[in-house]
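Exercise: predict the fold of this chain.
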Amino acid sequence: MKKIFSFLLVIISICSLLLYGCSSNEQNSRQSEKLSIVTSIFPYYDFARNIVGDKADVKLLLSPGNEPHHYEPSPSDIVAIEECDIFIYNGGESDEWVENVLDSLENKNITVLKMTDYVSLLNEKNPDHTDGDEADEHIWTSVRNAEQLVKKISAVVTEKDNKNKSEYENNTNQYLLSLDELDKEFTDVVNNKKRDTVVFGDRFPFLYFMTDYGLNYECAFPGCSSETEPSLEVVTRLIDYVRDNNIPVVFHLEMSNGKIAQLIGDDTGAEILQFSSCHNITKDEFNNGEDYISVMKQNCSALKEALS
């Protein structure tokens, strides 16, 4: 059904582009000379807006508060991609819709960045820590990966809009300093840890993050699992692990119902805390100015409690 829906959206979008594409492109060129950037998910939107400041327009396709794994582009989203200068997407299971959309576009001057092409990928792990069949797509959860991705976006933006090169480079350097400081904060927490394993009563999209800091984990599901109800065996395993190892904190993901984590907490007395993947943020967080760095700092505080 998802493939059929994606195909129908592409057909609708092509019709929309035939009606509005050419005139809309010409009108936009007259109205604004700013570089136009469209991003599929929040991390790249946040990276791009920190790089460009007010010198370019940045659009986020995934609305705040929406679940990224179920996103399907609307016709207006596809028109936005058609009319942009740079399109940034992640790649992986959540972005399966992208290839069909790109094939349908008439504008061949768009620079397309598939961010999973610019870092080393790790195989997704099953809850028993054996390798899965797919590369883990959640590359941005690593602050060190984020630094590399910001540099790539900055280089492409500067190439596209060289007249604002100095400002883009200054903004990039300042943002990289903030990411470096964030990395140091996590490193400091890990260097002072009393334990080296964290527990997620939820999906686990943090393989890159945990690898950076040499941490171990126990979880209910892999990062892109479609499962929402764990087996009795999984719940029992996590409860036993938390109790046997005196684990003080059990994590749940952002925008998750947290039921599994709460079940484990009720049985063991462990505290329930959120650890955000930054895949997306809520509407309130967006309106209150939360960003990748502020959310990751909240993760840092939560991690400190979990490793104490």
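Check your answer against the key: Confidence is low (pLDDT under 50) at residues 16-31.
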